[in-house]
Amino acid sequence: MLTASFFTWKGEGGISVARRVPRGMSGLPRYRALAPGTWFNKVPREEYERLYRAEILSPLDPRETWDRLHELAGGAEPVLLCWERPPLKGTNWCHRRLIADWFERELGRRIPEAPVP
């Protein structure tokens, strides 16, 4: 599994974990359970991360989520997609990395950011 931006990933296996997808990508599989809450653009980063972990990740079973994402990828490697463009550091960050950290913590699976072509 990988994470990437809608705008840099061009391969198979892409799955949206965002609240919405860019125009022209409406056929992309979506996993709405991992989309941020309505607070996503209204709170500072620290609060965002707290809310995301408590409200989005905590109710989910990591193994079931992992398995469902693999099903949605249709035999390809799943790539969790959202809006933020790499590089992700400092003020440019994204919830897809919170998901990756969750899988690493809960399942021992390291989920890297896909290389930018």
Features of this protein?
3 strands; single chain; alpha/beta; 117 residues; 3-stranded parallel β-sheet
Word description of this protein:
With 117 residues, the protein is of the alpha/beta class. Helix 1 (45-57) packs across helix 3 (95-107). 32% of the residues lie in helices and 9% in strands. The two termini are 17 Å apart. The chain has helices spanning 45-57, 62-72, 95-107, and strands at residues 2-5, 14-16, 79-82. 24% of the residues are buried. It has a 3-stranded parallel β-sheet with strand order 1-3-2, covered by helices on one side. The chain has 3 helices and 3 strands, in the order ββααβα. It has one domain. The model has no long low-confidence stretch (mean pLDDT 89).
Helix and strand element order: EEHHEH
Instruction: Assign an overall shape.
Output: globular
Number of strands: 3
Q: Give average pLDDT, whole number.
A: 89
**What is the total number of structural domains?**
1
How is the secondary structure organized here?
Layout (H helix, E strand, L loop, with lengths): L1 E4 L8 E3 L28 H13 L4 H11 L6 E4 L12 H13 L10
Parallel strand pairs: 1-3, 2-3
Helix pairs in contact: 1-3
Short summary:
The chain has helices at residues 45-57, 62-72, 95-107; strands at residues 2-5, 14-16, 79-82. The chain is of the alpha/beta class and 117 residues long.
